[in-house]
């Protein structure tokens, strides 16, 4: 396990299927970090009340969970599409309010055929109700994150390799 001390917030960003959750899991195994997975929060909200599906509620809960863990000096990984300047600024604000270090990481899969394969495998594993189709994932291409501290292409890289690059960026 790598020695990484908190409070620290690592915000992962990128479209569905590029490997954010795999990278987050590998990074958590290496560091003992807490993963705040917005997809899981949104799935729970949707099961409770389908009207919450297309609202910012999942992100708002994610910010609150991250802040709570940061207040306890934890290392937190935010695993989410994070597509908007507003969501990206909000994660940075959560870290700032907690006096935490912040690392913004943008993930992409530069091999479109591999990206599609990942999305389709994820969809089969998760079931149609939770995972986006290839067309939906492709349509959710996220704009570049100009303020990202680190940009990584996950094509042909194991999640542990991505996690090691993130750890290296932390110094």
Can you lay out the helices and strands and say which pair or pack?
Elements: E1 8-13, H1 20-31, E2 34-37, H2 38-48, H3 57-71, E3 75-79, H4 85-98, E4 101-108, H5 112-126, H6 134-139, E5 150-153, H7 159-170
Helix pairs in contact: 1-7, 2-3, 3-4
Write structural notes for this entry.
- This protein is α/β, with parallel strands linked by helices and 171 residues long.
- It contains 7 helices and 5 strands; from the N terminus they run βαβααβαβααβα.
- A 5-stranded parallel β-sheet has the order 2-3-1-4-5, sandwiched between helices.
- α1 packs across α7, α2 crosses α3 and α3 packs parallel to α4.
- The radius of gyration is 15 Å and the shape is globular.
- It starts with 7 loop residues before the first strand and ends with a helix.
- The mean pLDDT is 90.
Top keywords for this entry?
single chain, 171 residues, alpha/beta, 7 helices, 50% helix, globular
Number of strands: 5
N-to-C SSE series?
Answer: EHEHHEHEHHEH
Give the overall form.
globular
User: What radius of gyration results from the CA coordinates?
Assistant: 15 Å
């Amino acid at each position: 396990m790598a020695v990484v001390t908190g409070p620290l917030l690592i915000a992962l960003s990128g479209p569905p299927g590029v490997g954010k959750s795999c990278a987050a899991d590998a990074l958590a195994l290496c560091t003992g970090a807490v993963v705040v997975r917005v997809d899981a929060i949104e799935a729970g909200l949707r099961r409770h009340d389908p009207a919450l599906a297309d609202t910012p509620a999942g992100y708002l809960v994610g910010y609150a969970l991250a802040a709570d863990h940061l207040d306890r000096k934890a290392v937190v990984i935010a695993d989410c599409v994070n597509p908007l300047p507003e969501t990206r600024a909000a994660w940075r604000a959560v870290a700032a309010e907690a006096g935490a270090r912040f690392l913004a990481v943008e993930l992409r899969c530069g091999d479109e055929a591999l990206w599609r394969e990942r999305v389709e495998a994820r969809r089969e594993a998760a079931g149609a109700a939770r995972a986006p189709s290839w067309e939906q994932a492709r349509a959710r291409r996220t704009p570049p994150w100009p303020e990202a501290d680190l940009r990584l292409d996950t094509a042909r890289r194991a999640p542990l390799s991505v996690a090691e690059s993130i750890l290296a960026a932390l110094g």
